[in-house]
């Protein structure tokens, strides 16, 4: 039981996603995931707290990549450009797992509990980017606004990307969406009353 | 038991919030809320599904007000101005219950489950505003971007407003934050790579 299983984590993730797509998330048990991956339940629980966490195990790593990319942006860059660099890095990570990301999105979208979890992860990412901006000396509310607006763009871009039949890169859709946000906000008169 | 209790709903909300502030949300029971309000548990459950819903009972009404305000904006207004009108209406609703809104925010912020619920309500509001924009003929992704960016602004503005000692109106903070979002996004070069 304690022996090392080659790529157990990745096999469990693939097996879980397959089963969630085939049978639905609610109907799938940890025992079934382990069996599909030809591993034991004990091995499953060495890698994941529960069947939900299989889908969110990559969130911390994704956030670390994004924050590192932000930290690496030259100090002279504007806050929104720094956020854009972070989001493009996150996009590149997801791009490498395009098929997985699309299937995962379908599973998450179909379940209220998973959608909630996804919103929390995005809020955590926004908070992490705002914190990284403040470390660069960006004041409030500019730091929070740039980070929250960036996450808003990322959400919209991601939804477009998973829905698109063609093979555009997510980073490209993120850049385009950010340009569209500028057009949307820049075209306004500055008040409605 | 079935008799009409004057303002039972409001009394239960006030009692619940008092107890959540005094003892913590987790430690408070429905029986205690009902007792504090001098009502029965049965009356509580005629108004709310559980102790969590006491805190979110106003969300649907808030969203309806916001969407109605958006629908009333002249067709010539830009999408972001239409969203701004919706958010200012929501701000006015919260302004009328400033003390309640601040206490509620403290309770929600202290509990992970409640923070999740709040994020879902905000995501639902964003989706409702995007839908209202599409009804006006705004295309995608402009509708989703304007709605999501508006909610990003509202989140940041609300957090500033509850944290401020002075007596500014939430609608004013929302307008100011939207202006700052414009400055943040408008000052960028359009790409980071």
From TrEMBL, chains A, B:
Residues 6-66 form the HTH tetR-type domain. InterPro entries: DNA-bd_HTH_TetR-type_CS, Homeodomain-like_sf, HTH-type_TetR-like_transc_reg, HTH_TetR, MftR_C. Pfam families: TetR_C_14 (PF17754), TetR_N (PF00440). SUPFAM superfamilies: Homeodomain-like. The keyword Transcription applies. The keyword Transcription regulation applies. Residues 29-48 bind DNA. Keywords: DNA-binding, Transcription, Transcription regulation. Gene3D superfamilies: Tetracycline Repressor, domain 2. GO terms for molecular function: DNA-binding transcription factor activity; transcription cis-regulatory region binding. This is TetR family transcriptional regulator. The lineage of its organism: Bacteria, Bacillati, Actinomycetota, Actinomycetes, Kitasatosporales.
